[in-house]
Design a protein that fits this description.
0% strand, single chain, elongated, 78% helix, mainly alpha, 5 helices
Length: 143
């Protein structure tokens, strides 16, 4: 039977901040500082470390790309919704004579304040438009 090789000792000087982070990490994982340092050195010296790092970066970039695509979709929906609303409003709202226009402006201020309050409530807790649209589209596709 062959005798397992004995580990060799290495003395390393670390900055106090690095040593503190090493000790905290080892404590969180319930491992010795030596075990954590050995794993870190092994990972650093591993020939595939660059490929693993590249794979991790690629994965994160893919996640960011998907997130940006969703944001572009949501902004596109918002812009189109606003354009449809403005076209509808302009097409269906007749011009008012001046005395009625003054009263309408006063009422518009009240209605705007109500709108801002309702928008604030919806943004705080209500369903988002993009959720309603995706649910409606999914429901329309069912037989």
């Amino acid at each position: 039977m062959t005798k397992p090789s004995k580990k060799q000792r290495l003395s390393v000087y670390l900055e106090p901040a690095v040593m503190r982070r090493l000790a905290e990490h080892a404590a969180r994982r319930d491992h010795s500082r030596s075990l954590v340092a050995e794993a870190a050195i092994e990972s650093f010296l591993s020939p595939d470390a660059a490929e693993r790092q590249e794979a991790a970066i690629t994965k994160r970039l893919d996640q960011l790309d998907r997130s940006m695509s969703r944001m572009e979709r949501d902004v596109g929906i918002s812009v189109e919704m606003l354009a449809v609303f403005v076209r509808f409003w302009v097409a269906t709202t007749p011009a008012l004579p001046e005395p009625a226009a003054q009263a309408a402006r006063a009422k518009a201020g009240e209605r705007y304040d109500q709108f801002v309050t309702a928008l604030g409530r919806r943004l705080a807790k209500g369903p988002k438009l993009r959720q309603e649209i995706s649910e409606d589209v999914a429901a329309d596709g069912e037989p």
